[in-house]
Give the backbone structure.
Amino acid sequence: MTRFPAPFRPHTLTLAVALALGTSSALAQDTPSLEEMWEMIQAQQEQIEALQEQNAELLEQVEAAQARDEAEAAAEAAAEVAAEEAYADVVMEGEAMKEPAMITPVPEPEADGEWNLNIYGHAMLDMGYQTNQNDPD
């Protein structure tokens, strides 16, 4: 058995030949004539113009939707302001709206003058040991 160096193995050579044949068939195609290329360019230009028209129509629709949304938001804001103005005098006259006094309790030190922190309650430790009971292998 003959050992070939890594770059010169037979399957590498076969792959290189297949690639060369595949690219040569792509190069063998006839190139279009000037008239055919001009027709292709004209068709592409028509497609570009149609897409530009569609883009302009979509932009107009988006702008109209944005204007409609802005008008709705302005109408809602105006309605909120009108509602606030209608009830402003009622709220101002009421006694219920006075600000409550802030009460902050201050803890007092223990009798010996030092602060203590008492922590109480229950501690729970949930622990288990698995002896490969759930392993399906």
Notes: The radius of gyration is 42 Å. The chain has a mean pLDDT of 76. DSSP finds two helices and no strands in the chain.
